[in-house]
Amino acid sequence: MAPHPAFETNTVEQKVKTLVNAHLKSILKKENLLVSGVKVAMQRRINAQLHLHADNQDLNRFNRLKGFIMNPESMNSPAAPYQLNQLPYSNFPQVAGPRPIFKDSPFYTILQHLTPVQECKVREATRDTIECKIILKPDVADKLVSEPDLRVMIFCASEPISHFSKVDIAFPHQVEIKVNLDEVKANLRGLKNRAGSTRPADITNLLRKRAYYENSMTLTYALTHKKFYFVVYLVRQHPVEELVAKLKSGKTISKDQVIREMISKAQDSDVQAIGSIISLKCPLSTLRIDVPCRSTICTHNQCFDATSFLQLQEQAPTWTCPVCNKTVSFEALETDLYVDDILKSTPKTIDQVTVEPDGKWSRISEHGARPKPGHDSSDDDEDLVEIKDPPRVTAVKNEMANGSISMRTPPTSSREQSATSSVPPPSIGTKRSVSAVIDLTSDDEEENPRHPKKSATPAYLTTPTYSSPGNGRAQPVANSLGSFGPYSGNPPAEPNYIQRGYPHR
After folding, report:
1. What is the pLDDT of residues 43-82, one digit of tens each?
2. What pLDDT, in 10s, does the model give residues 445-492?
3. What are φ and ψ of residue 137, in 5° steps?
4. Cα 27 to chain center, whole Å?
5. Are 97 and 104 a contacting pair, CB within 8 Å?
6. Any residues with CB less than 8 A from the CB of 23 and at least 6 apart, and which?
7. pTM (two decimals)
8. CA-CA distance, 42 to 27, in Å (whole number)?
9. Contacts of 186 (CB under 8 A, 6+ apart)
10. CB neighbour list of residue 205: distance below 8 Å, 6 or more residues apart
11. CA separation for the pair 477, 83 (Å, rounded)
12. Dihedrals φ, ψ of 91, to 5°?
């Protein structure tokens, strides 16, 4: 038959090995046992007496002897002996001074403390380690196994601490926590420059959930400029789904109340009331709102989703409104029935609505354009405007369609030049001359005809063209200017030479 959990002796025997001779002799005197002998002999007598009380099922004597072993200092004081309902960590004395009172949170409720308050002294240039034991009573160990919402968490705060004000959770900036030699993986810093955004460290999964088992915990910290205090609590956790259900069944902002507030603002003579747009998407998750809520201290009608907001606060409790950044609390959150009615009356494709100063609202289409009252989509074709071509573009289109493209005819000399230069001598360069200019603007309706574009190379810079009449001597041919180039007289000796000069006046 397995021994009763109340008579568990392994933890107590391990504690006996750590006691000094003076404590061992005092325990033996209390139990009326032989005091003489070496240390090992005295330890064996105490362990034998402990097993004797356990075998006889004598709970009172067993707890009395166990109390002496777990707290040997109590034998020298008139304090009551160890009892079963007493937390078995009295070997860690309470810190003198006020106990930190932590701010309330909707995500957990503190039930009882499992360790005394431990003080972390100032260590400006060094590091320090605080050790403590977490010993669970039988009822606590059983509930931790059977009830998943019960958790064991480490709470920490920095000075100043008083009996009259509640403090935020704050761990040292450089800290490492280990439970049973396993490192605690948790965010112990919170958000940067945001006091109160740190959560307590959950160590439930690292504990040995056995009655009277000594779970060891070490907290190592460094470079602190003020004192810190930490304690381990047993808490009951409240999930987000439970809080949302509580919010929906709690206080609400009625639809009539919202409309009355809108009309009251519209009647203010100093304010010109105009329609406003309310988004049906949560500003946190950018998804359609499921449970619309807002704080009673906020003056805006824009809501946010309760589930998304509480999930964010569970990870980093800032408790600020995502719309106006005012500080809010869970107790001040209420469901807005006006926005809830809009959500139920519109399809999921509608993301925004327009709210008039009198409280009436209208849809905004999926493309963001608000439909006009009485507008018929079948009349959309009447709103089309035909853009007519200007007269000039119309004339060009007509000429191209008829195939009659007008061309400006150059002077006769220019035509002769083009005909002669069509078969240039081999010694002459292959540079093209300006041929014909196409005129697309010769319309009778146009007031001033458009002049042809000038050649990229001026005529006075072009190379003169020569012909051979048969006497073996080259003769200059008139260019497009009707002359023989800028200079009269004999042509240059070499045909490829480009004669440059001033234009003929």
Report:
1. 888 888 888 888 777 777 888 888 888 888 766 544 333 3
2. 445 555 555 545 454 444 454 444 545 454 554 444 444 444 444 555
3. -75, 160
4. 60
5. no
6. 72
7. 0.55
8. 9
9. 177, 199, 201, 202
10. none
11. 133
12. -75, -5
